[in-house]
Write a structure and sequence with these properties.
The protein is of the alpha+beta class and 244 residues long. It is 62% helix and 13% strand. The longest helix is centred in the N-terminal third of the chain and has 96 residues.
Length: 244
């Protein structure tokens, strides 16, 4: 016998008042069940909607993360491009400086040194005088025309000093304008520069020990763009003289 038949027979055996009370109670429970069912259905709907929103948010977060990574990659590339451009410009300044010290500066200083009877000049004296001029041109202070004149002390010292100071000042101005912490490195210790960042100048011994700096290195953005010229000495090598 089914449960509904059993309930019908049970209710048929009740007196009218008890039957009415039971029917009222059953209707009350039926209402509760109906409301709870609707609530469950609403919660299930909310869950499905929230789950959909969650999936949507997850996708949006993923998309935004990919966009951020793309933007960061572009920014890093732009920084690398800027760094590359700056290095190129610093390299150009270094080349201009190298040409200046190997041509105009060397020629001017060489011309200021008295020659020997054989028409030659002492290389060490040339190195020392060039070192003194470079210290004035690329030291901490701005180039001092009068100081350069005193070092050159030749017939054309005034005009030569002005030309040297003008060229050096322009190189320093270009370097400062470009930025990247440009520096003219005079230090001859290993803490200042590594051995491969300096080179013997004016015919000094290749394997000699650095004695003093002839011309500073040019460093910018942490890179040495032009090596330092140094005067080296070797006990086994006699110091010679330079030709005209």
């Amino acid at each position: 016998m089914s449960s509904s038949s059993d309930l019908f027979e049970y209710m048929a055996g009740l007196d009218p008042d008890d039957r009415e009370d039971l029917e009222t109670l059953m209707m009350h429970f039926a209402g509760i069940i109906k409301r709870k069912t609707r609530r469950i259905e609403a919660l299930e709907k909310d869950y499905r909607e929230l789950r959909g929103e969650l999936q949507k948010l997850k996708q949006e977060v993923k998309d935004q993360g990919e966009k951020i990574q793309h933007l960061l990659a572009r920014q890093n590339q732009q920084r690398m491009d800027v760094a590359t451009d700056q290095d190129v410009h610093h390299h150009n300044i270094a080349e201009a400086y190298r040409n200046f010290r190997e041509q105009q500066l060397l020629t001017t200083v060489r011309r200021s040194i008295p020659r020997t009877g054989a028409g030659r000049i002492d290389r060490r004296e040339l190195a020392e005088r060039m070192s003194a001029v470079c210290s004035e041109l690329f030291g901490q202070a701005l180039p001092d025309v009068q100081a350069i004149k005193d070092i050159l002390s030749g017939a054309a010292a005034d005009e030569d000093a002005e030309r040297l100071c003008a060229t050096a000042a322009e190189l320093r101005r270009r370097a400062e304008y470009l930025g990247g912490d440009p520096a003219w490195v005079f230090g001859s210790s290993l803490e200042s520069l590594s051995p491969d960042q300096r080179e013997p100048g004016l015919g000094a011994p290749e394997e000699g020990d650095p004695e003093f700096v002839i011309a500073p290195a040019y460093r910018a953005r942490g890179k040495v763009h032009c090596t330092q010229l140094v005067w080296t000495t070797n006990p086994d090598t006699a110091e010679g003289t330079a030709g005209p």
